[in-house]
Write a structure and sequence with these properties.
alpha+beta, 11 strands, 4 helices, about 180 residues
């Protein structure tokens, strides 16, 4: 797990830890935790063998003033394991991972606040990894600590990377939808 220097969209420091809320339905809130601690907590919470059944990309409006969110939207990933729902996403505040037994708690809320209108899923597939393996691979790619940038490394880029690592047979790139047979 490397340490990467990064800056947020408007120059503030991008938080290298992960905002982790393993009980998003309890409304007690999460906390920023270091990489190593996240993996230890996940191991205790769900073990190393809980398989991800499905991976989804959802989108939400950036502002309540938006009429549509066809081109401009925040993208985030939902993962369905055997017993949990997880959301993982990146924005100028850092990376957030939320867990709940209920999809609505991680799909409709972000850090205990209601999201703007949510749409989707805009991509979905089965998954070939356990949640623990997936988190380990995600950290290995330095996707968590890489700098957020509105145009070059944003929520859509992060969601694309997460989806493409986890998905069994499909790929998603912002504006493009492929299956493995067409993604030449």
């Amino acid at each position: 797990m490397g340490v990467c220097e990064s800056m947020g969209l408007s120059g503030e420091k991008y938080h290298r830890g992960v905002y982790f809320d393993p009980a998003a339905d309890s409304k007690t809130g999460g906390a920023f935790i270091p990489d190593q601690e996240l993996q230890e907590r996940l191991k205790k919470l769900i073990g190393t063998n809980e398989h991800i059944l499905n991976v989804y990309i959802y989108k939400s409006k950036l502002s309540s003033y938006q009429i549509t969110f066809f081109y401009f939207y925040h993208a985030f990933v939902l993962l369905k394991t055997e017993n949990w729902w997880w959301s993982i996403e990146k924005n100028e505040e850092g990376v957030t991972i939320q867990g709940s037994e209920f999809r609505e708690c991680v799909c409709n809320d972000y850090r205990m606040k209601a999201r703007k209108k949510v749409g989707g899923p805009i991509a979905e597939d089965t998954c070939r990894y356990s949640f623990y393996q997936f988190i380990d691979m995600l950290y290995g790619s330095c996707a968590v600590c890489s700098a957020y940038h509105l145009l070059k490394n944003n929520c859509k880029d992060f969601s694309s990377l997460v989806f493409n690592v986890a998905a069994s047979s499909k790929f998603w790139y912002p504006g493009v939808w492929h299956t493995s047979s067409t993604a030449g």
